[in-house]
């Protein structure tokens, strides 16, 4: 029965009240459908955009699509901030502020605000947004209505600009009227002040005229003196009463006397003012000098009413100028006579004066020096501290190194002093102490060499004593080994017979069959070692004894190398397991000092041992003869740490060392270079950091003696 009611709205025999109920429901559904269509039409026909916001945009009307210039499917599922720039005009993040506004609306707080949107065509627009909470089927939604107010905002801005402009015009007009009124009041007040000032000015002029240190004359149009002050009377050594009414040339001698060449006549003709210097002899016979200035007094029509003349006494000034010129000449001669270079600079180091003898120190002439921006550009930024100079007012004995125009290194000593001169504030004096420093370096080197020589003398004495103590037992070994060896050979006959009868036996913890073959080798090894000890001790005595300055010894470079290697054998074995020595064949001899050349080779070999930080890295030593140049050469190459490009040019400088922390003195290569120069030879070094070093010694071969 139920199935029939569901499937057939009017089954046969259905009660009439159920039929009426279904008919009523149908009418109600139809009415609701019409109402829904009406609301849909209203929803779509609204002039404002309408959005339904759940967690995202779930519904929108056609106007919303029109405002954002997109289709409905481009809106549904997105969030309002997706149609806005990343930040709103107030700087807040669009997504965060949208979340906040929607949350407030969901809590029942109506939100009304202006919002920046970006249409799908990329154009930014202004919108007015209202957010309300609505409930559908018991669930809360946010209903957003918004409209495009871009044009309205533009019109409002234009209106505001127009209103602002009108207000500005009104303000300007009002201000102009106020200023005009104030200017009238000020003009009235000014005229009153002017009247009072004129009265004061007349009194002041009277006072200035009477008390001025310059002489003043007032002439009428006929050049008669109508006024004269006390200073003029003192200048011409006449009383004021005796001056009044006279002509100016009667009081102040003038050869022109109102002719066309007179200065006063020139003023009358057309010049407004003039000035000149004048010398005269006063009543007391004193020669005086003054500067005369004259100006015409004219009416509005340009007619000359009178003349004012000012006489400034220059007598003391001229004397002061003469003394100043004399002092300037004295100081100029003094500056030219001294060796120091004098600079005057401003606070920031700008050079304003330089003495003429600067060329001798810096190599630049005065004009080239002034071409430098500051003194610091010339001698370095760390020349002196401005704060220190400000506190001490003077810094003395500043030592610095500079490079002159020719590229030569120079050592200077500078004194810096604050100066209260008109053109500069800092006085700097440079003195070249390069020669003195070089002399000090040479003296230090010679002192170090004397100390080294003393050490070598002490070492020679010590070595002689030690050598004697070593040679005595060593000689005993050398003398007794042959005797022991012969005794062994004699005893071996008896021992062989014993072994044939009794078989092998123990002899000194060794089986006789083994000892029979190896004891002779032990004797030979002990003899060889003893002879090596003897040679080492002899070479050590030769190296340590006081050297001769004679340079005419016949030198075999291979022999010198062998002696050096023998002395450094232990150090070389510890430094590398790849020591390679190649002795040249047919090497010509040359003359020199054996001990000094041996010292050079030892220094170079020691440096190579110290440079190698791994025994697997090689040290290669070779000798040879260059027939084209006629030179004997020795070369030491290592695979050590190498020398940096910054250090390489200085390795032969005295006291320059990169091994100071481990005892380096910086004298080894310096002394070696000097020894090579004494022999007419050359020491050259080629090195790259991390790739090793190659040192080459070259000697001019003179074919002395035989060949090695």
TrEMBL record:
One GO term of the biological process aspect: regulation of DNA-templated transcription
The protein's enzyme class: transferase
Domain Histidine kinase per the UniProt entry, residue ranges: 465-703
GO molecular function annotation: ATP binding; phosphorelay sensor kinase activity
This enzyme's EC code(s): 2.7.13.3
Sequence ranges assigned to domain PAS in this UniProt record: 201-246, 327-379
Pfam families assigned: HATPase_c, PAS, PAS_8, PAS_9
Coiled coil: 177-204
Origin: domain of life: Bacteria
Every PAC domain range: 274-326
UniProt xrefs under PANTHER family: SENSOR HISTIDINE KINASE, TWO-COMPONENT SENSOR PPRA
Protein name: histidine kinase
Organism: Desulfomicrobium apsheronum
Lineage: Bacteria, Pseudomonadati, Thermodesulfobacteriota, Desulfovibrionia, Desulfovibrionales
